[in-house]
Recover the amino acids of this structure.
């Protein structure tokens, strides 16, 4: 009887502890912001630029009509031709995510993840660790019909009063068999700072 009362009291204490808000830790100068808010801290490439590029390219490619029947696409790293560090992989990851959500394309392992895919297949087939019935068979990967590749470049102009940065993002979808570009688009962004 005592064990039941103790267990009930413990359960009640745990449940009531879960319903109270936890106190915040850390600095009082930090707060969460709106991830879709326009970020204008500097005129360097930022989160708003990444979102604008990804949304523009996704919309353009999805509406182009090229991706009929959910073809397989392989994504290549975007070439960064600017003088600043830009995580171009995040741009392509966002574009891939949005295209997958629309259901217009499927994606093969991209050029940087292909070795991981090969390593996993070799591990399953050659290690002897897995049940034969569950092992992924080699030679069954789906080849990409298209490759998606692009670049980002910038032109920076300075004067004593202003700094102007012009970004140009280009993306193209190329048919792997024919080598023909089936779709291309660009997104331009200009950011000016007064000193």
């Amino acid at each position: 009887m005592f064990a039941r009362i103790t267990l009930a009291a413990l359960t009640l204490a745990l449940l009531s502890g879960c319903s109270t808000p936890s106190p915040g830790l850390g600095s009082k100068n930090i707060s969460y912001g709106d991830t879709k808010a326009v970020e204008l801290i500097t005129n360097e490439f930022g989160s708003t630029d990444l979102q604008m590029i990804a949304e523009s390219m996704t919309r353009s490619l999805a509406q182009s009509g090229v991706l009929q029947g959910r073809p397989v696409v392989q994504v290549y790293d975007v070439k960064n031709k600017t003088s600043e560090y830009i995580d171009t992989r995040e741009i392509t990851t966002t574009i891939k995510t949005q295209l997958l959500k629309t259901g217009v394309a499927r994606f093969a392992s991209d050029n940087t993840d292909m070795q991981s895919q090969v390593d996993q297949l070799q591990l399953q087939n050659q290690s002897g660790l897995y049940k034969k019935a569950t092992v992924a068979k080699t030679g069954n990967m789906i080849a990409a019909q298209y490759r998606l590749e692009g670049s980002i470049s910038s032109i920076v102009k300075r004067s004593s009063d202003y700094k102007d940065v012009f970004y140009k993002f280009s993306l193209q979808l190329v048919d792997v068999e024919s080598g023909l570009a089936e779709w291309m688009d660009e997104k331009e962004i200009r950011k000016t700072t007064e000193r």
Q: What stands out?
A: The chain has four helices and six strands. The helical segments are 2-19, 47-63, 88-102, 114-126. The chain has one domain: 43-126+142-194. The first helix runs from residue 2 to 19.
